[in-house]
Design a protein that fits this description.
Layout: H1 3-14, E1 15-16, E2 19-20, E3 32-34, E4 37-39, E5 49-52, H2 72-83, H3 85-98, H4 102-111, E6 115-121, H5 142-158, E7 161-168, H6 177-180, H7 193-210, E8 216-220, H8 244-258, E9 266-269, H9 271-274, E10 288-294, H10 301-314, E11 318-324, H11 328-340, E12 344-348, E13 351-352, E14 359-360, H12 367-374, H13 383-397, E15 403-404, H14 406-412, H15 414-417, E16 428-429, E17 434-436, E18 449-450, E19 480-483, E20 486-489, E21 497-504, E22 511-517, E23 524-529, E24 532-533, E25 538-539, E26 550-555, E27 562-572, E28 576-581
Parallel strand pairs: 5-6, 5-12, 6-7, 7-8, 8-9, 9-10, 10-11, 11-12, 13-14, 16-21
Antiparallel strand pairs: 1-2, 3-4, 14-15, 17-28, 18-21, 19-20, 21-27, 22-26, 22-28, 23-24, 23-25, 23-27
Helix pairs in contact: 2-3, 3-13, 4-5, 7-8, 11-14
Domain Glycoside hydrolase family: 91-352
Keywords: Glycosidase, Hydrolase
Protein name: Cellulase family glycosylhydrolase
Length: 582
């Protein structure tokens, strides 16, 4: 090969297509900070859209209707008291095997998530300080590292970033006991230098292991500190003005990470549940992101202004590292707010018992009996009965046995971009079919439905709202209850409405049959078809109670074949609504 030809080959290799291609930095997928943004090796801005794997390595009681018990170690004690230490150990090993598998990560990628936040419990990676054979030394446990390796491998296949989050630090980093599995009988994270040194050593070990991994998105080094350093009465740390111990730790852990890993982002969380950054910034490293958390407050620019100000002042990117636990309306509004300001997000959480996350874990057979005993309200179940319930619970953890909450995902992705509505169930209807009242269209408040109370502002004084009062069936603002015959809409207020887009295959439907109940007999309904109001008000007859269903026939012009839009409006509320007969 002559030199001229060789030079042409080299030049050609530098160009593809019709233009000069950007050349990646070290690792084309590796994330770095650049002014206000997170970028990859090509310099492309990456907006993280993520989900937290809460409940896998760390159980919080509320996730499984066990809030009355609290921390994971106490849940474990309750189980052990019924089935013994050996069976409890088997249960927790199986829990880690089944709760999160490759199928879960595949599904998250398919839904549109590009990142995962892993809430880690330190006790899967190292012994507790008090259990170390030699004081001051660190014993490493392979289980946590191996499971993290597997998770990373699944993320790589799906091109999803994995952000490591130390959720339960040695000793526990706050007064909210559940989120860190804190035991009050032992020194806390902030009361023990040995606990803090163990944490620093753990992060150095993790950083050394993953230093060159492109799909590690970064290190969220300490979740939601809530501690009064200056004023012990400020138990949650929301009023601290200096946060000296927290900053000292964050600087030390960053230095330990940088000894072995100069590649990855370090995510900073402030005091007061990652909302109090007084005394913590300016930053001390050129590859850091400020991570704030947001729950139960209005989705206005004012609600995040303090973080936008910090970003501007210190030229540091922002990340909403944890949010959720609310209605679909709140989800959509929060994500729209963040993305309008170039802020990525990680929702909490992927699966639990409940309806406000993508996947729901069903309560297993016998679970209510187990809870009743633990509450002191029922008889003690036998070991065999308890094991049957625990095994059924483990089976319900599997993705294929979870209930998919399409309305939640729709609110987090499609509704962020569109006001369009879609049928809740894709099926065709003919005369005699029934549409359940709770199957109103998928879409935003004001487009698929209108409810006067669509979100919970539980951390905002003076805003006494609940969102969905029933927390059943779906996570929109509409209030839904369940009885022995199924689900129905209740707490219907004046002016609220529901929209149903239905695909009609017959041309002989000339009336609607409203399945309603009203103990007061004061309800009044207006019906419209394809935006044309049907003549006359529908008066709801008085019934004995809110589930004593009566059928009210509403004459209409024949529905056309194909798509029709039916709208049910409460001119006067107070009634309940079960179904719509065709």
């Amino acid at each position: 090969m002559n030199k001229t030809f060789f030079l042409l080959v080299v030049i050609a290799a530098m160009f593809t297509g019709c233009g000069l291609q950007k050349q990646p930095a070290i690792g084309k997928h590796l994330l770095k900070t650049q002014n206000h943004h997170i970028v990859n090796g090509y310099g492309d801005t990456i907006l993280l859209r993520g989900m937290g794997l809460g409940g896998w390595m760390l159980q919080e009681g509320y996730m499984f209707k066990l809030g009355f018990i609290g921390q994971q170690y106490r849940i474990r004690e309750h189980i052990e008291n019924l089935v013994g230490a050996e069976e409890t150990e088997k249960f927790y090993d199986a829990w880690l095997d089944l709760h999160t598998r490759k199928a879960d990560i595949d599904s998250m990628a398919a839904l549109g998530f590009n990142s995962i936040r892993l809430p880690m419990h330190y006790n899967l990676y190292t012994l507790a300080v008090e259990d170390e054979p030699v004081a001051g030394e660190q014993t490493w446990l392979e289980q946590g590292f191996a499971r993290t390796d597997s998770l990373l491998a699944w993320c790589k296949v799906n091109e999803i970033y994995l952000i490591l989050d130390l959720h339960a630090a040695p000793g526990g980093q706050g007064h909210d006991l559940n989120i860190s599995d804190r035991n009050l009988d032992k020194p806390s994270f902030w009361e023990s230098e040995a606990n803090r040194q163990k944490t620093i050593a753990l992060w150095r070990k993790l950083a050394e292991r993953y230093a060159d991994e492109e799909w590690i998105g970064g290190y969220d080094v300490l979740n939601e500190t809530n501690w009064g350093f200056e004023d012990p009465e400020d138990r949650l740390g929301v009023h601290e003005t200096k946060n000296v111990p927290l900053k000292e730790f964050l600087v030390q852990v960053t230095q330990a990470i940088r000894e072995v890993d100069t590649n990855h982002i370090v995510f900073l969380e402030g005091n007061g549940f990652a909302n109090n950054y007084r005394g913590i910034v300016p930053d001390w490293d050129d590859n850091m992101v400020l991570s704030f958390h947001k729950y139960g407050n209005p989705n206005t620019k004012a609600s995040i202004q303090q973080f936008l100000d910090l970003r501007e002042k210190y030229n540091i990117p922002l990340w909403l590292g944890e949010s959720g636990e609310n209605s679909n309306t709140w989800f959509t509004e929060a994500i729209v707010l963040c993305e309008a300001h170039g802020i990525g997000w990680a929702w909490w959480q992927n699966k639990k018992m409940g309806i406000n996350q993508p996947w729901e874990i069903e309560k297993p057979e016998g679970y209510d009996r187990l809870l009743s005993y633990w509450k002191g309200e029922g008889e003690k179940p036998s070991k065999e009965e308890t094991l049957h319930t625990l095994n059924a619970w483990l089976d319900n953890l599997k993705l294929e046995n979870n209930n998919f909450r399409a309305d939640v995902v729709d609110a987090m992705f499609r509704q962020v971009e569109s006001n369009d509505t879609r049928p809740f169930k894709n099926r065709k209807y003919s005369k005699g079919d029934v549409i359940q009242a709770v199957d109103f269209d998928l879409g935003k408040q004001g487009f698929a439905y209108f409810d006067k109370d669509t979100a919970s502002y539980h951390f905002t004084p003076g805003m006494d709202t609940q969102g969905n009062r029933g927390w059943s069936y779906r996570n929109d603002g509409v209030d839904i209850k369940e009885d022995t015959a199924g689900y129905y809409v209740f707490h219907i207020e004046d002016g609220e409405w529901l929209q149903y887009t239905v695909d009609i295959v017959s041309d002989d439907i000339d009336r609607l049959l409203l399945h309603v109940a009203d103990p007061k007999g004061s309800g009044r309904i207006r019906v419209s078809i394809n935006d044309v109001e049907v003549d006359g008000i529908v008066y709801v007859p008085q019934t004995t109670d809110e589930t004593d269903w009566t059928h009210v026939s509403v004459p209409i012009a024949d529905l056309k074949q194909g798509e029709n839009m039916i709208k049910i409006t409460a001119e006067k509320g107070g009634f309940t609504f079960k179904a719509l007969g065709l």
